[in-house]
Amino acid sequence: SVAKSIAKALGREFFRFSVGGLSDVSEIKGHRRTYVGAMPGKIIQCLKSTSSMNPLVLIDEIDKLGSGYRGDPASAFLEVLDPSQNSSFLDHYLDVPVDISRVLFMCTANDLERIPGPLLDRMEIIRLSGYDFPEKVAIAEQYLVPKSLGESGLMVEKENDTNDQQQETAGLPTKEAPKGTTPLANFIHAPNVPSDLAIDTGAIESLVRWYCREAGVRNLSKHIDKITRKLALQVVAEQQEGESTIDLMKDSKRKGDTWRVDEDNLNDYVGKPIFTNDRMYEKDPLPNGIVMGLAYTSMGGSALYIETQGIQRGVDTEGKRRGGGGIKVTGQLGDVMKESSQIAYTVARARLADLVGEKNATASFFDETDIHMHVPEGATPKDGPSAGVTMVTSMLSLSMGQSVRHDVAMTGEISLTGKVLPVGGIKEKTMAARRAGITCLILPKQNQRDYDEIPEYLKEGLEVHFAEDYDTVYRVAFGK
């Protein structure tokens, strides 16, 4: 939809083709005419179908290009996307140079790491962040709900306003949508559909908050379609009341006395909420060794806890501790996150040695105690370096026997000397912190420019600290 809008704004023709799983160079460069069934490549086909030499061409899923014995399509795209070479693009079928330098190419990808470096150098990268809560609600109200109600036959688009004008002339009230419902000014209820049938804004907000937390709105659209289909079935079941109907129709009648879908009866249409609460620990103060971190996933931002427990070994016949001084990590952590835990363990040991003399801080804690670090939930794979400062804080909280602030969450990579390094997904992580009820954020100093670009309504009510080294994180987290 973004590419179509750009093409419309530029007054260009639009053409889209997907290259996901494509492993044949001939799909791009065309077949030689000596082969049976030979045809031009996609580039020439798009010029033919659009009847234009300067269309906007959307190359979808370019990070999922395949490679096989028929060649490497990623290498073929080097000529297509290079402005210095595509003025004489040679298609094998035509066998004459074609100037495609006026074509505007747009590519979409989910993972830049899967795009070959030489091909990535020929692109200008624009990162699109996920929709936040108000944006999702607005998209649902203005587009998804009217579209779904229309496709389900519950509403039809107005042809003209003659009926309303006649009612106004006669002094009769015109039909308006109930307050609190989605804006459907251009739609009216279909015949035999109850006039109070609507989806409340509160129901949409509950869908976004407790059911659909992906970066886009695809899952939200599925849930809205599910609601409208059930509403349509309920309307048919009500109309056939008293007739000999199948058991399915009898079981499909509405359970309440209203046709409005709101927060109270939303469970009857989409089931129990998928997400219940972002905070595993509600009580204040938090247990020692528990700190909330922030993660950036394909679903957007999410809050995750780092849990740390210490196990003191028994003593031998000489009175010395058996074992101690080791760390074990669980929670399906990737290689990068496992390395972060080792770095955090070293930083925590060095930091604890500097804190000897403060409350409950003993330099021999890590020598006498085995550390077990866990990142719930255990069934969800996790990776990335952005939990470094959270891990250090969790181990220091355990070793000093002191809990961190209940309203604080943090993110940032930690270096071996205690420097806090920048991370990505600041907007998504800020949204996750607000959703979890966090009021204090600790972010890397170098991410301040990313935070400044976030809309003001996401910053409202947040106490944000930018840390250049771990000293700042320690002072804020422990209230020093």
What features would you describe in this structure?
This protein is an alpha/beta fold and 480 residues long. It contains 18 helices and 18 strands. The protein has helices at 2-10, 26-29, 42-50, 73-81, 117-120, 133-151, 162-169, 201-210, 218-239, 247-251, 267-270, 335-354, 365-368, 388-400, 426-435, 448-452, 456-459, 470-478, and strands spanning 14-18, 56-60, 89-90, 97-98, 104-107, 155-157, 187-189, 198-199, 260-261, 290-297, 300-312, 327-330, 369-374, 408-410, 413-414, 420-421, 440-444, 463-467. Strands 12-13-11-10-14-17-18 form a seven-stranded mixed β-sheet. A three-stranded parallel β-sheet has the order 1-2-5, with helices on both faces. Strand 3 (89-90) and strand 4 form a beta hairpin. It is globular.
Give the tally of β-strands.
Answer: 18
The oligomeric state of the chains shown is: single chain
Q: Which parts are unreliable, with pLDDT below 50 for 5 consecutive residues or more? A: 167-175
Question: Could you tell me how far the N terminus lies from the C terminus, measured between alpha carbons in angstroms?
Answer: 50 Å
Helix content: 25-40%
Put simply, the count of helices is 18
Rg result: 30 Å
**Helix-strand category:** alpha/beta
Q: Report the biggest beta sheet as strand number plus sense, adding barrel if it closes.
A: 7 strands, mixed
Reading side by side through the largest sheet, how are the strands ordered?
12-13-11-10-14-17-18
Please report which band the strand proportion falls in: under 5%, 5-15%, 15-25%, 25-35%, 35-45% or over 45%: 15-25%
Mean pLDDT: 86
Q: What spatial form do the alpha-carbon principal axes imply?
A: globular
